[in-house]
Design a protein that fits this description.
five-stranded parallel beta sheet; 20 helices
């Protein structure tokens, strides 16, 4: 039984690495490091299938340095200590830690003194943002290098190498250019994904020249790395909201499509609702309501038909007037209230004690309600509402707001009650 194709043809040195010129090219950091035989601790971060672990191993092999490979998902503290002892024997030594962001804080802290004193050089591989997922102490001791998705032409080159490689397909089958190009397009820069499709096609269509149409019978959905635990997922969700906020309807539809391909209705619902209230809000309340209705419809019909109401909602929100007045106002109030919790006036309390009837809240005088002072006395002139006039609806709201400001408010309920109620 053979190992998977990506494992069988894994590059043995930096010269065999595809792409990543900024890292392994003539002026790349790893290339310069290898030429000068100067070892460093490094964090390689980037999307899945871009060659992070492969680059780490190729770096060690190019330098002819002993290395130990561990995976943070499965490794135990005991295994880490065994690796450290091995590093003391085979010095210098590189410890390759795959999925390094999955190490808990205790295990990350365990590595620190040994990275510090040079017992081993750490090369961590991660799909997560290292500035978020790794503690500062680890980051400060490592050079951070981004591994980028491969270009389509680089994926095609990798597929051709795999087809000819004696450890790969050994030219036992052939692919036309259209098949290579289609696989590369589907891969989204993920070489491992592309090689797995290549191997599946070689098994299914053994002895034939494999075409794009044949590959289509195996895989049609692009590899967008939409696993909810991956950085790309959160990037797509973020890009959807930013595109709507920026009124770029084409971009918003593209990012919505990516999430729909992954059938991630939960993320779509949450992000569209947040976007509707945060970025459109008071400028177009009807669009907010229509968004809610579209989400309800999507839930009822499910995928694939759910894309229709969701698409309508995204177009509606994109091309609508925008207002962050509500969001900015409540954030301002939240910040202030968390630092200055003033006492509520007696006449606003649910059950006021020792308050005379003349000073109690006038439930029977609606004509007075908008003349009463509701803010605590010490901040009675504070303004939290941040008005904007981005639509006729907001303009009407703000006209009323300015009228109320001009009218003023009072905490002297006794005097207010002496005014005559309108008939």
């Amino acid at each position: 039984m053979k190992e998977p194709l990506p494992f069988r043809i894994r590059p043995a040195c930096l010269d065999d690495i595809l792409g990543q010129e900024h890292i392994v090219g003539p002026n790349g950091f790893l290339r310069k490091s290898a030429e000068k035989k100067a070892l460093f601790s490094i964090i390689l971060f980037g999307p899945p299938g871009t060659g992070k672990t492969t680059i780490a191993e190729a770096y060690a092999k190019t330098l002819k340095v002993h290395f130990v490979s561990l995976n943070a998902v499965t490794t135990s503290k005991q295994e880490m200590m065994q690796a450290i002892e091995e590093a003391k024997i085979f010095h210098p030594c590189i410890l390759i830690m795959d999925e390094v962001h999955r190490l808990d804080k205790t295990k990350q802290d365990l590595l620190l003194p040994y990275v510090e004193n040079g017992t081993f050089f750490l090369i961590g591989a991660t799909t997560a943002n290292p500035y978020v997922s790794l503690n500062r102490a680890i980051r400060s001791r490592c050079r951070l290098l981004e591994v980028k998705p491969l270009e389509e032409n680089e994926v095609v080159e990798g597929l051709k190498r795999a087809t000819a490689n004696p450890k790969g397909l050994n030219n036992e089958c052939s692919f036309d250019d259209g098949a290579y190009a289609f696989i590369a397009k589907l891969s989204g820069g993920d070489m491992r994904f592309a090689l797995n499709i290549l191997e599946e096609a070689s098994v299914q269509y053994e002895g034939e020249t494999i075409t794009k149409e044949m590959v289509q019978t195996i895989e049609r959905v692009p590899n967008y790395a939409m696993d909810k635990d991956e950085e790309e997922h959160y990037d797509s969700v973020s890009a959807l909201q930013k595109s709507i906020r920026g009124s770029d309807v084409d971009a918003a539809l593209y990012y919505l499509a990516r999430l729909c391909i992954a059938q991630d209705l939960d993320s779509i619902k949450r992000r569209l609702l947040v976007t509707a209230y945060e970025d459109i809000g008071l400028a177009n309340p009807n669009a907010v309501l229509r968004c809610q209705m579209a989400i309800e419809a999507a839930e009822k019909v499910g995928f694939p038909e759910a894309v229709i109401p969701l698409g309508d909602a995204v177009v509606d929100l994109c091309l609508s007037p925008k207002s962050k007045a509500g969001d900015l106002s409540i954030q301002k109030a939240m910040e202030y209230a968390s630092s200055k919790p003033f006492i509520v006036q007696d006449y606003l309390k649910l059950t006021p004690i020792n308050v005379q009837e003349e000073d109690k809240y006038p439930y029977d005088r609606p004509d007075l309600w908008e003349k009463i002072q509701y803010l605590p006395e010490m901040i009675k002139n504070m303004k939290f509402y941040v008005p904007s006039d981005n639509s006729k609806y907001e303009q009407a709201l703000n006209e009323n707001y300015r009228r109320l400001l001009k009218q003023g408010r009072s905490s002297d309920l006794r005097s207010l009650k002496k005014t005559k109620a309108p008939k």
